[in-house]
Amino acid sequence: MNQTDWAVNGADVDVTRTVTKNGAAYFQDEYKTHYEPWQAICEYAPSIQDPAAEAQREGKCQPPAVSMVQ
């Protein structure tokens, strides 16, 4: 069994940039991005009869760890 991608929680990212000129705000803009969560991906040989059990036994293709970043 080979893990080819890892599960990731989604996220919303907001970034505000302020550009100053001679100490005064020149302009400000805001960027918003939304990332969808996705699951881990494992490849396995046809000889593996229970891929979910094998992945759990090997600690592969598990859900992402819960994290709260603020």
Short précis:
The chain is 11% helix and 43% strand. It is mostly beta strands and 70 residues long.
Question: Which helices and strands, and how do they pair?
Answer:
Blueprint (H helix, E strand, L loop, with lengths): L1 E4 L5 E11 L2 E12 L5 E3 L7 H8 L12
Antiparallel strand pairs: 1-4, 2-3
Structural commentary:
- The protein has 70 residues and is mainly beta.
- It contains one helix and four strands.
- A two-stranded antiparallel ribbon has the order 1-4.
- β2 (11-21) and β3 form a beta hairpin.
Structural class: mainly beta
Give the CA-based shape.
Answer: rod-shaped
Strand-residue proportion: 35-45%
SSE arrangement, N to C: EEEEH
Radius of gyration: 21 Å
Can you give the helix content as a percent range?
Answer: 10-25%
